[in-house]
Protein 1
Amino acid sequence: MGLSSVLSQQCSLEEAIQETKIPGLSVITSGPIPPNPAEMVASKRMSSVIAELRERFDIVLIDSPPTLAVTDAQLLSTRCDGVILVLDHGKVKREIALKAKEGLDKVGAKILGVVINNVKRRKSEGYYYYYYGDKNN
């Protein structure tokens, strides 16, 4: 059971919410892959599920498929307060990242920031490494 089960009314939202070992953290898995995921994400039912989750939880995070792979991420971004792009260092080329950003800009998504995964650090660097890049890129 997961989000697709809730959206297709195969289970209730309550049944799909799973408690974790971490106090205060609950998750809803994606559920079985439906034949029409983009339609489900764009549905009124999805809007009502998000609204209900906002009432029940302090923070709602939605992990979506890659922005350029399918339309789901762009559709979801229009229903969220903000978007955080996650990029794999050394695998995602700058042009692709900019194309993903442009797609989100087109639908009016509010990009809050970027997380870059798998950055190789030298031993001489400290435990924490912060990069403050150009705001426009």
Protein 2
Amino acid sequence: MSARTRADPEASAERADASRPRQEGPADLRLVPPALAAWATAAVMLHAPPGWAVTTVVASVLAAAVLLSTRGRLLLARRRVTRRARVTAHAVAATLLCVAAAAGSAGLHGADVRSGPVPELAREYARVLAEVEVTADPRLTRPRVSGNRMAPVSVLIEAEVRRVERTGAAARKTRAPVLLIVDTGDRQPAAPAAGRGSPWLSLLPSTRLRVEAGLAPAREGGDRFAAVLRVDGREGPRAVGGPSAPQRLAGRLRAGLREATEDLPEDARALLPGLVVGDTSRVTPELDRAFRETDLTHTLAVSGANFTILLALLLGPPGLAQRAERRGLAPRLGISLRSTAVLGAVLSLAFVVVCRPDPSVLRAAACGSVALLALATGRRRSLLPALATAVLLLVLYDPWLARSYGFLLSVLATGALLTLAPRWSGTLRRHGVPPRVAEALAAAGAAQALCAPVVAVLSARVSLVAIPCNLLAEAALAPATVLGFLALAAAPVAMPSAEAVAWCAGWPAGWIARVARTGAAMPGAGVDWPGGWTGAAALGAVTVAALLVGRRLLRHPWWCAACALLLALLVVQPRPLVRTITGWPPPDWRMVMCDVGQGDALVLAAGDGAGVVVDAGPDPEPVDRCLSSLGVTRVPLVVLTHFHADHVAGLSGVLRGREVGGIGTTGLEEPADQAAAVRRAAAAAGVPVTRVGAGERRRAGDLSWEVVWPPPGGHPTVEGPNDASVAMLVRTGGLRLLLLGDLEPPAQRALARSPAARDLAGVDVLKVAHHGSAYQDPGLLDLAAPRLALISTGEDNSYGHPAPGTVEVLRARGAAVLRTDRDGALAVVPGTGGDEEVAVARH
């Protein structure tokens, strides 16, 4: 009995040790310096003079040789060298050889961009006939306002020029990376499918085209392209060679996934192909903005997480991988360890082929394999060498990754999961946090801490909801990815089954989209931060300070709760609290001129939570933020004074999540494409569109207004959209406001002589026409004689708005002049009496 008693504790101890991860020594960092040295060398040498690369290669190889030969002489002379000296000599020599390899690779890639006929012809802006091979999936440019119009939607295609021929000269063979900008002629900003019907978007990588294009130099300093080819895409592409068999297979699979998701709700339909294969062709600008605001953009691109999830399905859940060698589908199906390795390799190859074998996908496969390697074996000590090896090989394969922010973010996130996250998770567990919660918090926090400074460089903004949004989305990412890949595999052989699986995958995909939209809709979702590397350094310092303070706070639960409550208030920003602290919006505001950049957007108070909107600005986000800050949830009417993009392109921001009664527009529907876009957006939201004209009177609560221009039957002075602007005389809170849209002097003079002129004399507030341009009619300004003149214009705009002469004339007539580019959003409130009949608050 005593022997049994002694044996049992030993057996229990052995079982307990087997169930825990193996304890290992410190991390092996020997490969980190060579990888970092190669990374830095490639980044520098890509745009260095050609001789630098040759000099660096020769000097590095010679230095390594001298170092090793010196070590050899020491061995012969003394017959002994300390182990530390041998290790140091090997490490330095390896670093020098990696520097030489990176310099050679970067020099060759840089030469492709600088040398050959393509850069030479680009400097001359020559017109050429070129044969190009597509190297990546085509993509659409984002809709943007250019002046008072929308810039045309273009298709961007990365390609390589194989032959180039200038008129009157012989064709020349070459191999130069270029960017094709294909003008589709589509200027429909509010159409979800703008440009998406272009045949250029259906081109597969490895397709060969013959194009007639104008060459232009690429942007200097950072682009990987030898030139830009501008192509008129209205005639469609002329293919001279079809895509390769693997690309045709990948194209069929991707098309099958798009077909299987066709009937899903809008967000899931757009997001699921992006989660699975990085196909973001259906993602709307609004959804993309939501993912950027919440730092969830990694889910819209092929990342190491996608590949890790797939291999985890084969090898086992990461949470159990450290306690047993294999727990996935492979052992359950009786597949041997070697066969499992082969299956993993096949899965890796299929992942790269379907998601396109470009550098970003190769990076994702490499980093995903590295992350899973440690989870599957329990050897965290082997992770950093594996990550360093992946970085080194990828930089040597494609030196342009050394200058890629995406590559930097991927490596930082993986490194955070390997180094910081385990320590932070252990600290949280020691303070009583449940293990799974601790692991999730540590992973999200570590990745955010290292990646946030780089994100600030790109966006000049710091997300305050990134960690909670990533935690909430993480639970749905695995099922959406796995089900999405099942739908991808089933689509070519059984479309009904693929549609059923895609329907199931739509639920977690829709959840991720809802998390992103909800997080982005928070008033304090993010804070503006200085861009550039100076801002990144400042954010890094703030992060370090916050971590040091956070370590102390963990010992005081009440302080932790207070900080969490403060952060929640900062994100949610309850309006009563914000108004108490900032004074915005003023309690009795009557009109607010929103700060929307170079454009117009006004809000007239029309009761509790209601406001009439006059114009929507050039972008949906600023007007949406303005209305949210005012607490406007109901819009009885949106008045679009005319159809220039700087007044109507932000309409979707007004319609977003609000009850809108109708849209009133001018009768002149020019530009026609933008007028059509407004009607499509209104139809999609179920909002009626009507025309308004002079003489129309309406009321909403104690707000009333009269349309004073344009006349219903037209007028000889109306020669374009500006002169057809809707002008309104508004009465609210005892104030009279004159809103002139973008009226030019001919229409202004006609208005001053119209029957409504007697009501325009001596207004309290004037919204100055056309952003305060120099073209103003003195007679109308004399008639209006405003106490307050407001100008909506963008900071450092290229039009010179407002014109100094206009500002001087207004001030000479006794008006106080305020402008959004310097004063921000402006709120008009009734005065306190006496001579102060009107006051203004700034935001």
Protein 3
Amino acid sequence: MNISGLIIGLGNPGREYDRTRHNFGFMFIDALLEEAQRNPFARCEQLSGGKKKYDLWRCDIVEGQAPWLLAKPQTFMNLSGEAVLAIASFYRVKPAAMVVAHDELDLPLGRMRFKMGGGNAGHNGLKSITQCLGTPDFHRLRLGIGKPPAGGETTGWVLGRFSQSDTAMVDAVLEAAIQGIRTFATEGDVAATQYINAFRS
């Protein structure tokens, strides 16, 4: 199968986790799919689901370019690497051709960062992927969620839902993130990093 690469959005499966901060990566994949449906050139095909370790789509991101695989692991966050490794092995995708979208405590809501490789910063999804792939050298799309208010508990914060007042900012981030990934697909790392890291909402 001729593909351009693999974009993974991290999150936890199940309605109880829908639109929580920790599922920002899932929300990004959903936004990519919705955007593709609005583009006349784009085709999206679901490749798997149900009892598999992941939900997977083959989707056109850029006109005239080979499609990308879009994935939402269904293994829960701490075991995300099992799903990513299964996809990468079956479709022969190298880590350098992967982008992992995930929530980031160290960035405020309304900011995002794009980078290749690096540490896991305590993120269990990234830790699992690094362990399963045997390398940290994959791209990361870091979507800021900010830290809990003073004295707040981190687990409750990341598993809490965005507030109603956050909605416009979340939507703006997702829209810009889509453009950032398109920039990556067409112009490469440097242009994507400049666009994504400069974003403010």
Protein 4
Amino acid sequence: MPRKPSSLVEGVHLAAKLADLKEDHYRVLLAVSAVTELLIDKGLLTREELERKAESLERELNGLISASLHPMA
């Protein structure tokens, strides 16, 4: 079944939005990386502290996700 023109236009718009999100994601990641490197270079934190914090936040997030997917009755 052929697609409707409006579906094609919607697909193009969706692809453009995705490209914009990817660009935004790249810029945020670049800024976070730069700030992280500056903090490490200035001796305000170590890579080990950063890794421990990231692991802690990941465990916390996984716990929240698990709890929301499997609420207690």
